[in-house]
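#lab-general

N.A. 3:47 PM
ok so I finally got the sequence cleaned up, no stray characters, all 105 residues accounted for. can someone with queue access submit it? mine expired

B.Y. 3:52 PM
send it over

N.A. 3:53 PM
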Amino acid sequence: MPETTERKQVPQERAGELAKMARAGIDVSGAADSVNPVEAARCCPCGMCWVPPGTPCVRSPEGDHLGRYVRARRKGLLSDNAMAVVLGDLGVVANWLIVPAAVTS
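B.Y. 4:20 PM
back already:
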């Protein structure tokens, strides 16, 4: 009899699942530490440039508006520690600021 192996979720699936749970009103704050900040931010549409979920705001170099991270934090998809990493090297804090993906990966 062949042995079955359990399939593990890729980070995008995990972040997407947490986003659905947060939209349904389920508290996902404890799980937010296990999600990559970039993937969590990209679960949300960007309120600055209106790109859909899953798409980076800027492609070269790849990055997203800080407002997208703020939205993910507000929805419970990012922990305080993850948000601190995002904000760590920024000299200016504004929603329109682009956070390079390399900073948070």
